[in-house]
Amino acid sequence: MKNVIVGILLGVALCLVGGFLFLTRGGMPVKTEGGPLPFELYLAHAALRSAIGTEADRPSPIPADEKNLVGGAHVYRAQCSVCHGEWGRLPSAIAKGMFPQPPQLLPPKTGVTDDPVGETYWKVRNGIRLTGMPGYGSSLSDTEIWQVSLLLLHAQELPPPAKDVLQR
Ligand code: HEC
């Protein structure tokens, strides 16, 4: 029994030393070019899903009317388009140089039109650590965050005044 415990402790210590050496001796990719590590995407997505939890089901407290979609379009142009793209244009140099690459959220891409609006609200309010996605909870009002979340939900079916702001 004693030998088994010593074996387990040795195994754990070896894993910790291996992990430390991997991180400090150049095994860990730090450039933005190149792919993810094995399991990196799975673990990152699982952590994000569990952090958002039932908050994804939160309904928007404001309607997706023309006024709010135009408001969302102004927020998008000022805060988001540098990473998430201008309407119908190729990704910016900043977006191309990031890891992970920011998804393009306006047409012709489908963006997050399939995600619940509460999930988009959560991501915009809190950000996503170590990805470059900023949290806007302390710089945009709650109404502005809902407006831009509604804009992205309805990106494929926007009223002309909201499209005008995005295509100007
Ligand atoms: C500096 C670059 C940058 C800016 C500015 C930025 N984002 Fe992001 N955003 C990212 C990156 C990178 C990701 C991808 C994160 C990941 O892979 O988990 C992301 C992810 C997202 C997602 C999740 C997409 C998905 O497919 O699940 C949403 C929604 C989002 N951003 C909305 C916004 C909004 C709205 C704004 C402006 C208010 C904004 N972002 C500003 C970089 C940015």
Set out the fold topology.
Layout: H1 2-24, H2 40-52, H3 66-79, H4 81-84, H5 93-96, H6 117-126, H7 142-153, H8 160-167
This protein binds heme C (HEC).
Heme C binds next to α3, α4, α6 and α7.
What does this structure look like?
This protein is mainly alpha-helical. It has a domain of 110 residues: Orthogonal Bundle (Cytochrome Bc1 Complex, Chain D, domain 2). It is 52% helix and 0% strand. The protein is built from eight helices and no strands. α3 runs parallel beside α8 and α6 packs across α7.
Going by CATH, what is the homologous superfamily of the domain at 58-167?
Cytochrome c-like domain
The count of strands amounts to 0
Overall outline: elongated
Rg value? 21 Å
Write a brief caption for the model.
This protein has helices spanning about 1-25, 40-50, 65-80, 80-85, 95, 115-125, 140-155, 160-165. With about 170 residues, the protein is mostly helical. Helix 3 crosses helix 7, helix 3 packs parallel to helix 8 and helix 6 (about 115-125) crosses helix 7.
Tag the structure with descriptive keywords.
binds heme C; Cytochrome Bc1 Complex, Chain D, domain 2; 168 residues; 52% helix; mainly alpha; 8 helices
